[in-house]
Amino acid sequence: MSLSDKLLILFGGVGALLGAASLIGFVLSRRATSETGRATIDNLNARIRAWWVMIAIFAVSFALGRGVTMVLFALTSFYTLREFVSLTPTRAADHLPLVAAFYVLLPLQYWLISIDWYALFTILIPVYGFLLLPSLAALKGDTEQFLLRVSRIQWGLMLTVYCISHAPALLTLDIPGRPGEGFLLLFFLITIAQFSDVMQYVFGKLFGRTKIAPVVSPSKTAEGLVGGGLSAVAAGAALWWITPFTPLEAAAMAFAIVAMGFLGGLALSAVKRSMAVKDWGSMISGHGGVLDRMDSLSFAAPVFFHLTRYFYT
Amino acid sequence: MIDLALIGLTRFIVGGQARWTGSLPEMRQRIYFANHSSHLDTLLIWSALPRGLRASTHPIAAADYWGKGIVRRHIGVKVLNGVLIERSTQGPPGAALAPLRNVLSEGESLILFPEGSRGSERLPGPFKSGLYWLSQEFPDVQLVPTYLDNPSRAFPKGTFLPVPISCTVRFGPPLVRHAGEEKDAFLERARAAVSALAPDSLG
Fold it and tell me: Residue B176 is part of which domain span?
């Protein structure tokens, strides 16, 4: 089976799944009677509609190749960093570090990945960004909450640019005997991370009782985590044929993605709570901001990238 | 063409979502008056208006900024439909308002920054008297308070390049005119109407 055949089957499968979800959403919307039930169903349907759009964007960018997919992820980093910085109090003296973050470090990171300069893209932001940003901030001579301000920008960059960029970095991996199959690894990562989120939401809504972190994220329940996590691990094992992994290894990889995704959602909920907001933005109707959809992926991407790189290349 | 490119660029970098609370994007003659903290402000309000309103709404632009250089002048006057005024005009009170009166007598709308120059605070500073004189002379024109959230963070005074930080444009309920109200009381009330639209600071 060729690469494009596999991708056709995969996107066809996702389309069928979403079609079923749309049908269920439609039936539910006719049945809902109570006020809160209707609100939940409306939000569910808004989420499903947004999923159609997101899947379409991914399918088109995959079809157009590596360059376009890199640009898509660079834009994702751009919008998530914009959401992060918009909610983070910054001062006029932070302008220069922000210019460097958005207009220098972000494009440079994606350029380094696209030319496959592994040694530099893994240290660009954690080392050189780390040294550059506080230097630029200090030039302005504003010491008010200096360490806090510098840390926020560095943290935002690490999360939205450095971590997320490890997803398209999968396209650069050379797996022996499997040229060009980075797209399948990327598909695997995104699908498991997002499927885990969706199934945790579904299981949580249906059976959720025991809150795991009532203060940080009231919607996270043990039932949701176990049900959603197991579904995603099963889905990972079922997708072993598109990866260099055996079925058991694929399940273990999916488990790593689920675990990191859960921690990412938890940590970013804590950040949102500390900023007294519920969502990162309003760009994706029903979901909130782009970062609300990317939180689990941002934590899972570097780990999945490293595991694959060390064990399979 | 240029207008669409400018709107696209504004949306990409700073968003500039419009929030209509208490007034609607209607086809009627208005003065939108807003807080002023950045060179993005004119562009933000202009691109937040629906297309139909944009054509009949003229931002007031300071001649010493928007009148300088061919490119900026072209954008200010031809694309944004701006009315250039001199900030330093000496003469009888309200003499500098002549170009604004012309726009209003033709039945078109205005975007006005009554502080006169850019501030750096979250809430607007004291208003200059132009808004008062215009509201007296054109009693049928609706006065819409407008609050711009974040442009001073995206493009602070003294910098050369805006950074991507989401800005919002909030249009509030029209300011009611009280018969016989003194100039200073009116201007303070107008300023409070803009401040009331500011979101609570997170600190």
Answer: 2-195
Q: Which residues of chain B make contact with A82, given a CB cutoff of 8 A?
A: 15, 164-166
Q: What is the pLDDT of residue B91?
A: 62
Query: Which of A35, A64, A93 represents a domain boundary (last residue)?
Result: A64
* Out of B15, B17, B202, closest to residue A89 by CB: B202
Asked if B135 has any chain A CB less than 8 Å from its own CB, the reply is no
Mean pLDDT, range B72-90, rounded to an integer: 83
| A64, A84, A113 - which closes a domain | A64
Q: Residue B203's pLDDT is what? A: 38
Token pair for B30 = 């208005």
Q: Mean per-residue pLDDT for B12-37?
A: 94
CB B43 within 8 A of CB B80: yes
Say whether residue B161 is in contact with chain A using an 8 A CB cutoff.
Answer: yes
Interface touch A92/B156, C-beta < 8 Å = yes
CATH number of the CATH domain containing B6: 3.40.1130.10
Return the pLDDT at A108: 98
Q: ipTM score of the complex?
A: 0.89
Would the pTM of this model clear 0.80, i.e. be above it?
yes
Sign (positive/negative) of CA torsion B30, B33, B39, B41?
negative
What is the domain range of residue A48? Answer: 1-64
Contact state of A86 with B156 under an 8 Å Cβ cutoff = no
B83-127 pLDDT, tens digit per residue, is 988 776 566 666 778 889 999 999 999 999 999 888 888 899 999
- Collapse the DSSP code of B34 into the 3-class scheme (helix H, G, I; strand E, B; otherwise coil) and give the result: strand
Question: Taking 70 as the threshold, does the pLDDT of residue B52 lie above it?
Answer: yes
Residues 6+ apart with CB under 8 A from B76: B42, B61, B66, B67, B82, B84
A97/A114 Cα distance (integer angstroms): 24
Instruction: State the angle between helix axes of B41-48 and B2-14 in degrees (0 to 180), rounded to the nearest 10.
Output: 110
- For residues A9 and A186, the answer to whether their CB atoms sit within 8 Å is no
* Residues A86, B166: C-beta atoms closer than 8 Å: yes
Question: Which of B152, B161, B165 is closest, CB to CB, to A86?
Answer: B165
Element (H, E) at B108: none
Q: Does one domain contain both A54 and A189?
A: no
Residue A88 in contact with partner chain B when CB distance is under 8 A: no
Dist CA A280 CA A282 (whole Å): 7
Stated as kind and residue range, the H or E segment containing B77 is none
Give me the residues of chain A with pLDDT under 70, please: none
Q: Mean of the per-residue pLDDT values for chain B?
A: 90
- CA atoms in the 13 A half-sphere facing the CB of A162: 20
Tell me if B39 sits within 8 A of B189, measured CB to CB: no
* Other Cβ atoms closer than 10 A to A240: 18
Is the residue at B202 inside a domain? Answer: no
Helix (H) or strand (E) holding B127: none
